[in-house]
Amino acid sequence: MSATPGTSRSTEASDAGPLAVSNVMLLDTLWASMVSLYADLTSSAAAHGLTYSQAKALNVLRQGPAPMRALAGILRCDASNITGIVDRLEARGLVYREPSPTDRRVKNVVLSEDGAAAVSSIRDGMHGTHQALDSLSDTERATLEGLLSRLFVAQDRP
Known about the structure:
mainly alpha; globular; Arc Repressor Mutant, subunit A; three-stranded antiparallel β-sheet
């Protein structure tokens, strides 16, 4: 089968029907999209003096406070790694720790006002990603969101 990255169809027929899309084709397209998204996020984060991992942590915290262990799970990193990430974000005033209201042994990480402004600016600075998404119609955007959500839920998530 052959296809151009970013296209959704192969040029050969298969048992599933003419021009069926194989998992390999989907993986290639997803991989290419992830690489572009990673590069765009890394570049925008660097413009704010942050790493990719720090930007991801800030983005997760946009949804609300999170215990350190949960944040490590969402970011798929070791607990000792998340401690370093949060320490550096806290030193810059982008997050702060507060005791959990339900378990005093647990510390929640909370996005500060400066952290919220930083993550908003980082997301706004992802020009390549915005340009790609802006090329989609409203229907295509809704379809993409639905499909990506289904893929996310179907994966073995913590």
